[in-house]
Design goal:
Shape: globular
Number of helices: 13
Distance between the termini: 40 Å
Strand content: under 5%
Mean pLDDT: 88
Radius of gyration: 23 Å
Low-confidence stretches: none
Helix content: over 70%
Order of helices and strands: HHHHHHHHHHHHH
Structural class: mainly alpha
Length: about 280
């Protein structure tokens, strides 16, 4: 129990107290000149179509980033498990971890330089004759997706990799000896056994994307509105009551998705147990 005290103190004493203050602030703006109980902020968010559009954009961005990082990250994790040379493994780990070691502002600024109309990518496309005019890759959803997938790729690869490294190689060998093709072995053996890593990676990437601010703010250029941008705008405009409302909307989305994925995972495992019996 004493070992839990530091973490419990930080969680209960800082996070939940702060959330309680924000909850009160969302219905009782005690920092304003005329503090009184009001649900105006919640009513404004629920009844204004603009804010629902922002919610849809945020969810779409989070789902696309999660799906793309999974598509890119799963083969990467599988390839890493087949590498036997320690030097190459260290080099790959450094490349994968490098986005985390650099400030998110620096990373995003680097992507702005690479993807701008005068950037390296457009220069290469024009010189190779692939396009006639520079492609617009920043200040839109495309630029945000490219930068977010790069930044969050390690958070997808390492949970999957941690599960893959624990797989018994004899299982694949046994499936092959029984006549299963490589695709059937992957679909019936590898994929189900790595499902916990996939779910963990998806939950981490989704949560980080839906609450991300710096990358959507700079790569979107104000043209792609997400919930974190609304919070920043209202905090900057000292509209703390409405900012608190958006905070709880964001938190509610994250908690709902986590509960939904956990239930789906439990159902998948229950069906798998039934099919085995």
């Amino acid at each position: 129990m004493p070992l839990l005290m530091p973490a419990m103190t930080l969680t209960l004493g800082i996070f939940w107290v702060a959330m309680a203050v924000l909850l009160v602030l969302s219905v009782y703006p005690f920092l304003s000149e005329t503090p009184r109980f009001t649900l105006a902020g919640w009513q404004k968010f629920v009844t204004d179509e603009f804010y629902w559009h922002v919610v849809r954009t945020t969810l779409t961005l989070a789902l696309l980033v999660t799906g793309l990082t999974l598509i890119v990250g799963y083969p990467v994790a599988q390839a890493i498990t087949r590498i036997r040379r320690p030097g190459i493994l260290v080099m790959i780990y450094v490349v994968l971890v490098s986005p985390i070691l650099v400030s998110v502002v620096v990373r995003t600024y680097g992507w702005l330089l690479l993807l701008s109309k005068q950037g390296l990518l457009n220069f290469a496309l024009l010189r190779l004759g692939i396009v006639r005019d520079p492609v617009s890759l920043i200040f839109n959803m495309t630029g945000i997706l490219i930068a977010m997938v790069h930044i969050l790729l390690p958070f997808m690869v390492f949970p999957i990799l941690s599960v893959m490294t624990q797989l018994d190689p004899d299982l694949k060998q046994a499936a092959g000896d029984l006549g299963a093709s490589r695709w059937v072995t992957f679909r019936r053996v590898t994929l189900p056994l790595t499902l916990p890593g996939i779910i963990s990676g998806c939950q981490i990437v989704f949560t980080l994307t839906i609450s991300a601010f710096v990358t959507p703010f700079f790569m979107g250029g104000g043209r792609v509105q997400v919930l974190s941008g609304l919070i920043f705008r209202d905090v900057e405009g000292v509209n703390l009551s409405f900012a608190s409302v958006v905070v709880f909307i964001t938190l509610g989305l994250i908690v709902s998705i986590l509960i939904l994925t956990n239930r789906l995972t439990r159902q998948i495992y229950e069906r798998a147990d039934v099919s085995r019996t």
